[in-house]
Structure prediction request, 459 residues.
Amino acid sequence: MRVRKFKLRLKRNISDLYISLQPQPGVNMIRKLTGFDRRTMTVQTEIIAGVTTFLTMSYILAVNPAILGTTGMDRGAVFTATALASAIATILLALMAKLPFAQAPSMALNAFFAFTLVQGMGYSWETALTVMFVEGLIFILITFLNIREMILNAIPMSLRYAIPAGIGMFIAFIGLKNAGVVAASPATFVRLGDFTPTSLLAIAGILLSGVLSVRKVRGALFYSILICTVIGIPAGVTQIPESFLPVSMPQSLTPTFMHFNFSEFLTLDMAIVIFTLLFMNIFDTVGTLVGLASKTGVMDERGNIPRVKEAMMSDAIGTTVGAMLGTSTVTTYVESASGIAEGGRSGLTALVTGGFFLIALFFSPVFLLIPGAATTGALVLVGVFMMDSIRKIRIDDISEALPAFTTILMMVFTYSIADGMMLGLLCYVLVKLLSGKRREISPTMYILSAFFVLNYLCM
Prediction:
């Protein structure tokens, strides 16, 4: 009798222990939707990472309307389109790819939209939106056919390690340039900028981010952005309008929604434009995905990224929807590395970032207060974090080291992730081919190289 009672009690205790170890329904749902693993992740860390990513890239909500507004587009409508397109693409990525990356209209491609297509080639902004829409549809098709994934898998390992280092230097340079820490020079191209309140705030942000990171403060980059924004108020860097109201209703999309123009579409020039835009976007996205994946630890020894097809599909859908709403091509943002540096590892980070883009629709006056100088520290520190991949490059083999070095160098000097990748891959093929190592070149690399050359000939 006592043995039976003991067995029943033991069975009940084991059952209670098993139930207590099971995830709660809410946590289980989060895990299923975003890939969140409570054994290695915490909700608090993922939320801080998501907020940090949003704050680091929130400048796009101010910059994108300003750039596209030069074409005659309604800036209020562009702001709403930018926030919505970013939210939709990022939330799709969170749920489909379950990765801690964020997406928004590309800074390089919005300049291509405004200054090349409209102001340079004379197309209307409606025609430019049509180009973005068609590009998005083509992206969906080639992603569905795994063409983009084939391109990613064809990248040699040495270049996959070079890409994050190049991206790190690139985004650090962007932060320093935007804050005036480095400036243009007619004699030397770049020089040390003047010591203005903006540049001094940026330098203070770099030091503050570094000190907080050394002291292992969780959310170091996030706190650095907030502190610098507050410091910027008495310094005159953070501008607060006289009639400031923190809440406002979203601006109407009517001036830009579905404003397509196909009348100028069926021309040879337009075919070249779409071809160029496709390659710019493909290698911008692929380069960024490789760089970010290497920082999350999800990329395996062969350089494969899990659910990369879903990540690419989300930005393809985002580009298509964004063009319908009234904004330029959507791509994965290198600033996602700031959230990754804060410990973001799952789609929950991206879900939080996407949610803040939706919130930004109603609190745009508040988010637009954050000056670019306040995010400089985060961008530079992210660059530092991404440099460690250089250690994995085979420096003793020049046929591997030279293409890797070319990739890193040209990302910064051409101000383009896509150009850095294409030139690095071309260098790889030529060096291997001319040094008698053609067996190390895959057939896909030959095909890509031919397209790269054609792309540059058409520019």
